Amino acid sequence: MNFFKRFIVDSAYAIQTAKAYQKKKRFFYNILENDENKYKKYFDLSMMLLIFISITILIREVKHDLPYHLVYFNSYVISIIFFVEYLLRLWVHGSVSQAVIKRYEHDSYLGRSFNLSKALRNIINSKLSYVFSIRAIIDLLAVLPFFHELRLLRVFILFRVFKLFRYTKSFQALASVLATKKFEFITLAMFSSIVIFVSSILIYVMEANNPKSPINTLYEAVYWSIVTISTVGYGDITPITDEGRFVAMLVIFAGISVLAFTTSLFVSAFTEKLDEIREMKTVEDISKIKKFHLICGYEEVAKEVAHSLSKKHKNVIVLDENMANVIQAKSDGFMAINYDPGSVESYAKLHIDINSQVESVLCLKQNDVENVYTALTVRSINKEINILSILVNESNRKKLEYAGINEIIYPQELVGMIVKELVGQPVAFEAIHELRSDESNITIDEIVITERILQHYSMIGELEHKRYRVIILGLYKNKSKSFYFNPLDETFLEEGDYLLAIGNKVFIKEFESSLHKKSHE
Amino acid sequence: MKNTTAFVFGFNNYASEIIDNVIHEYDNVHIYSLEMEDTKNTKYNIESFDLGDEWSEIKQLMISKNHVAFCTLEDDAQNIFLTISLRASFQDLVIVSLAKNKESSNKLEMAGANKVIPIVQNTADIISNMLSKPIATKVLHNVLYEKSDLKIAQIVIENEEYFHGEFPADIDWSRYKGIIVISVMSENLSREFIYSVKSKHKVLRNGDTLVVAGYENDLVEFEQLIGGKRYVNWGNWSR
Q1: Which of A434, A437, A500 has its CB closest to that of B136?
Q2: Where are the domains of chain B?
Q3: Which of A320, A313, A326, A362 is nearest to A339 (CA)?
Q4: Are B3-124 and B145-236 in the same CATH fold?
Q5: Is B231 on the interface with A (CB under 8 A)?
Q6: Number of neighbouring beta carbons within 10 Å of residue A155
Q7: What's the ipTM?
Q8: Does residue B124 sit at the A interface (CB-CB below 8 Å)?
Q9: Residue A253 C-alpha from the chain's centroid
Q10: B3-124 CATH, one of 3.40.50.300, 3.40.830.10, 3.40.50.720, 3.20.20.450
Q11: Is domain B145-236 in CATH 3.20.20.70, yes or no?
Q12: A interface mutation test: which of B23, B183, B236 has the most A CBs within 10 A?
């Protein structure tokens, strides 16, 4: 390998392994192309704002003299910003260094000498594929108003409007919907073109030689045909000969069928894709939720759990492969999606970060087999996430444990324990049941000891909970994971500890806020 | 104090769990099933019954007053019919019925059940509480259901003089080291949180029941102080 090629390959490896360079490139890629990046929407909004400013200036400029700084801003500043954006997009589209390395390693593997020209060809092809994409062409044309002295080029400002397509997802959804009917639209365009072509020639032949007819040129004939076939019919140009009027009648009939066909195409395209669009929207909405519980299977228990969590202001997302259950969940007011909770692909399609977004996965189907399958699927994706499942048949308990389920709820066992307590201590049971019920005013709550609280309170005795008619049932020490019932006044508080407080909901809230308020004083 | 007889209607996983948990609380446990198949190959002595029975056999078994019937039939409609049949025949019988959902739960209450356990609702509540208040749920679960040293007890006051006519909300409960009084139920069966407005104006009397949390030794000491005793007052189950 000669010195030049060696230099190219070494440079490519250097760039590929340069952390700072890759970090910058990744940053620009995320902000320009990655829809899941949280900053992209701000970038998109800024660009849309620039587009609207540019259009406003253009409209204002038609009948008014504008200050020079506005024209300067529109012609140069915005254009330069758009041009920089264009160059950045060109940069992040594919990797030159990667293409060189790929070709070098490919050639080395086959024992050939490094073919630099092929590597360059691949790079140029990759970049050109971007340059000639419709979006990139629109981006480039939107930069042309930079040469605003050429009056004709000013109209290219309108291409900035087309740039909106890039930043607005609903436009992209519309384009994707219409793209599904590409063949039908091409057929329609062909039919309309033939009708326009034939009718233009016919009307020209019939009318052009008549001195009273307004149709004197082929251009006027084409204009008349398009206006008529579109069923707009301005009436500024009308045929006056009988032959011409006969042609007009044929074009009108053709126009009606074209209109009907176009409308039906739009309607059918949207009807067919409506569910998909809704699904896309749901997935997008889900990806924006910071924390939620993922309920797999929307059956009897799941319904109640979802309602109960929702009452406690917890976010709930439902996954179910049964469409009827998904519809039910949606009508109950929950975000639901028709994905199979037992499939890894479902979680990939959801675009969620299980670690940071999902608080727990709840396998609540009345079927141990499906719950185990779902749990194993989730566990294969994430080892840490908290999984809770109901157990339908006691003999399957071990299987659920092996599947990595953290919490197993066996309703039958629960009923047995409840009955035991009911029979033994009905009053105590009812009192505790009331504490746990969402309906009751008296409740048991967890108050976490924060750094702010610790600034003013270091011991239980300082909390003044009795003043708020609150009972401190106990203190949960997070470090030692141990519970201290009825702690002594001298018990020290530590950050992360939990107080278990019993009392009226309102008083507990007041007590909790008093702990924080005092920190402000 | 042991109760006398428990009747369990229906034989399924729920019934098995109930039987296992309460069998030691009763002198006699009678199990009935609608299915003849259930009467064979089990460790329990199961008798068959049908919903059209006149309950003459059960009437003979009811010698004293403390009887409980557990209605655990899987079909909610059948369970409601069973509950209403039992209530029609036995006014004083304590009936505990299982319901799948809230709708059936309401109907069972109307049919005369003293206590209804809505299975789905209870399971969902436990799950929801585990997720929203994990520590409190775990502590209460251990106190109520597991073999924990910490216990919740209901203690009936039999030495009201000890409180010197004080209101529950004004009593310094810390003088009873180790225990926490959560609520008080007066003889007229109204249950109030210890710091509620009503408790502020109610003097503790003999016959009132205190719901107390504490370790066994402390509870015993407290019982002795107030001359109280722990027992089940079946009359507390209102209909």
Answers
A1: A500
A2: 3-124, 145-236
A3: A320
A4: no
A5: no
A6: 12
A7: 0.81
A8: yes
A9: 44
A10: 3.40.50.720
A11: no
A12: B183
Strand A498-504 with A471-477, pairing? antiparallel
Q: Walk along chain A (521 residues) and give the pLDDT tens digit of each residue.
A: 678 888 888 998 998 888 899 999 999 999 888 877 878 888 988 988 988 888 888 788 778 888 888 888 888 888 889 899 999 999 998 888 888 898 888 888 888 888 888 889 989 998 999 999 888 888 888 887 666 555 555 666 677 777 777 777 777 777 788 888 889 899 999 999 999 999 999 999 999 888 888 999 999 999 999 999 988 889 899 999 998 999 999 999 998 988 898 889 888 888 887 788 888 888 888 888 889 999 999 999 999 999 999 988 899 999 999 999 999 999 999 999 999 999 999 998 888 888 889 999 999 999 999 999 999 999 999 999 999 999 999 899 999 999 999 999 999 988 888 888 787 777 777 777 777 777 777 888 888 898 888 888 888 888 888 788 888 888 998 888 888 888 888 888 888 899 988 888 888 888 888 887 754 44
Domains and CATH numbers, chain A: 3-167 (no CATH), 182-275 (1.10.287.70), 290-413 (3.40.50.720), 426-520 (3.30.70.1450)
Which among B20, B183, B233 has the least Cβ separation from residue A416? B20
Residues in contact with A439: Cβ distance below 8 Å, sequence separation at least 6, in sequence order: none
Contact between B122 and A394 using a beta-carbon 8 Å cutoff? no
- The first and second tokens of residue A354, run together, are 């299980």
Distance of CA A105 to the CA centre of its chain: 37
Q: Does any CB of chain A come closer than 8 Å to the CB of residue B179?
A: yes
> Computed from CA positions of residues A297, A303, A306, A310, in that sequence, does the dihedral angle turn out positive or negative?
positive
Instruction: Enumerate the residues of chain A whose CB falls inside 8 A of the CB of residue B230.
Output: 425
